[in-house]
Amino acid sequence: MLSTGSVETWQGNPLELGPLYPFVGAEAIMFVASLIVFVAFLVWKFKWEQAKYDQQAKDLNDQGR
Amino acid sequence: MDNELSGLTVIFTEFYYWVTVVLMFLIHVGFCLYEVGCAREKHKLNTLMKNAMLIPMITLGFFFFGWWLYFAMQNGPGITGGLKEAPWSEPLSELMGPHMGGEPVNERLTAADTATWARLNGVFWAAFLLFSWTAGSILSGAVIERIRSGAFWLLAILVGCVTWVVDAAWGWSDSGWMVQVLGYHDAYASGVIHGLAGGSALAILIHLGPRLGRFRADGSPRVFPAHNVWLVAIGMFLIYTGFWGFYAACNVPIVDIDPADGRSFFSATTIYLTPTTLSGITVNFLMSLAGGLIVGYWVSSGDPFWTFQGGLGGIITASAGNDLYHPYQAFLLAILGVFCAYRLHYWVERKFKIDDAVGAVAIHGYCGSIGVIAAGFLLWGYPSSIYEGYAPITPWGQLAGAAIMFVGLGFIPCYLLAWLLKRAGVLRIPRAVELAGMDHVILADEAAQLEELASAERA
Question: Could you give the ipTM of this predicted complex?
Answer without folding.
Answer: 0.95
